[in-house]
Amino acid sequence: MEASDAGPTAEHPAGVGLLITIVLALAAAGLLGLGFVAQQHAAYAEPLGEMLHLRLLLHLIRKPLWLGGLAAMIGGQLLGALALQRSDVARVVPLTATNLIFALAVAAAVYRERLGRGEWLGAVLVSGGVAVFLVSGEPHSVGPPDSSPAAWLAMLVTLIAAGGLVLVAVRSALSTKAMLLAAAAGTLYGVQDVLTRDSLVRMERTGQGLGALLTAWQPYLLIMVAVVGILLSQSAFDAAPLRVSLPAATAAEPIIGIVLGVAILGERLRVDPPALAGEVAGLIALVAGIIILGRSPFLAKSEQGPARSPDRAQG
Length: 315
What we know:
- The chain has one domain.
- The termini are far apart.
- A two-stranded antiparallel ribbon has the order 1-2.
- 50% of the residues are buried.
- It has helices spanning 14-43, 54-60, 64-86, 89-96, 99-111, 117-137, 149-170, 174-206, 211-214, 218-239, 242-264, 273-294; strands at 140-141, 267-268.
- Helices cover 72% and strands 1% of the residues.
- It is globular and about 45 Å long.
- By secondary structure, it is mainly alpha-helical.
């Protein structure tokens, strides 16, 4: 059975292992929040005509601010992978969903303004929702990942749904386009979390290290999903400020990750009525907090920030 904080070991008792997982996931969320703020400030100055085109990434890669944001995001994903190596997707992704709180904290520090009651309410709902979900659901693995066609059909359906969001976004107004592209990116981030966990479990169970991944298709799909996810998120950042583009991605990732974790990775949640009530209430609070945080004026600051390209008005 893979190493996990779900049970005690000689080196790490259960409590210590859980604490390490929480610290890693929250550190990942902090770096992701920082990275999103930096990337959006850089991407928002790009012409709207570059959305969904690889030349958007080719232009952004020349900007030091965007590269710094990318470095922070990669660092956050690496810390998230370390957390996923230790624990289940259903336990890790709700914690990394707190990245919006860190993004707000970074924005407040940059603009040297205090957070208001709305921001604090949103932060309490997000953090409290995560805590209630984890305590009520007690996510845990009951076996190895399910390799049956039915399990991976769920992955295919999820990818098709993300593609559908992109198709609708192309024909939508600018703000709607940003939300839909961000939701598609968040969906792919949830898929990425599941594929990361699956790859790490595969490496550990076979004892072959990276060699075990060369003959599996999951790591190759993981790379493709990661690249497309970055393109979608940067296109959303190009289309609208963080208050429009980030909340949808932040809400979609944990929901998709939890569902696919149960469907594919053999993860389980408690299903007795009190636990289910707590899980639903926790997820509702999490999403409500994300929506409230998304309305913060701090996330609209980029509208007044970088100089706009002449064709910003198209779309």
